[in-house]
Amino acid sequence: MDLVGACRAFVYVSERGSFTLGAAAAHMSQSVASRRVAALERHLGERLFERSSRQARLTPFGRELLPAARQLMTAAEELEHEAETARRRPVRLALPETCPAPGLARLVAAARAQGIALEVRTAAPAARPHLVRSQQVRAAVVTVPPDQARWSVPLGLAGVAPPRARRVYLETLRPRRTDQGPPRRVWLQPEDDVPHVRDRVVRVRDAVGLRPAQLAVATSLAQAASEVFTSEDLLLCTPLQAREFGLHWRPVGELRLERTFGLLAVEEGDAERLGTRLGGALAECLGAAGAAGAAGDAGEDGDAGEDGVPVRGERKT
Q1: Whose CB has fewer CB within 10 Å in the chain, the N or C terminal residue?
Q2: Helix (H, G, I), strand (E, B) or coil at 264
Q3: Helices (H) then strands (E): counts for the chain
Q4: Which domains are delineated in the chain?
């Protein structure tokens, strides 16, 4: 039995003194109101109304139960209101600052199609977990080690001049006595200033004999790109970022590098739900969807991103 619906019919009929008028006020047909009241009477074991052809009068039992029925109906209405408010409350999600504005807009639109009111906020890698822990956001896309990644995007080196080979080896940046200008540098953007990227590049830098200053961490992507535009320096970036800046991209010769992401949420189940419902849109926003094709487009003659450099989108679980 629909106890809430039955109490609703009971309350409205009692207020109007008529099944016809009460049913109309409750937005149901007279026959439905009659069936619901009859079902409630059977459930409670007593009659609620003295029925006549013109009116419905409460029995003493009905008068005793009317306040409780009103409370139940009011509680149900409050529950429905709270549920609707909760559905409309935005889900705040922290994302990398490297996500382009069009990708963010498509992500919000995809969430809306799923009935999710998504509110996005971009932040640096170290700040995003803090936003979740302090509950300033409900979830965040965070940097994780490769073996924990849900999404990954290839990283390579990009510069103004077209490269001569299909890969860029760091050892080719080693200063020579005949060089006239300053040594060429590799610029890391803040998103890649994380141990599983930075430390691996440092090890290769030291192994091939580069100077410490030849690996620099920029304060922002814009600063890193500006340094590359005005020199022969290289930017460590994704293929899509290289395309956005009009740079020529190639994989790193000595090692495979990826920008790897996972989801962190205040409630453990939220991470899995968001990943399941918005996984494809998040992959696109992060540059993981279609990264293989973008890697090819970033270089000349469509040959960048090959030679075994893996590109993964959303991990299948």
Answers
A1: C
A2: strand
A3: 11, 11
A4: 3-87 (1.10.10.10), 91-148+259-286 (3.40.190.10), 153-258 (3.40.190.290)
The half-sphere exposure of 8 on its side-chain side, counting CA atoms within 13 A, is 20
Separation of alpha carbons 115 and 27, rounded Å: 27
Tell which residue, 313, 256, 274, has the closest CA to residue 290.
313
C-alpha distances in Å from residue 183, one per residue of 69, 147, 148, 153, 174: 82, 34, 36, 28, 8
Q: Residue 230 carries which side chain, given as an amino acid letter? A: T
17: left (phi over 0), alpha (psi -120 to 50) or beta: left
Q: pLDDT, tens digit, for every residue of 1-54?
A: 799 999 999 999 999 989 989 999 999 999 999 999 999 999 999 999 988 767
For 57, 248, 303, the CA distances from 164, given in Å and listed in that order, are 95, 11, 12
Q: Is 244 exposed, middle or buried (0-12, 13-18, 19+ CB in 10 A)?
A: middle
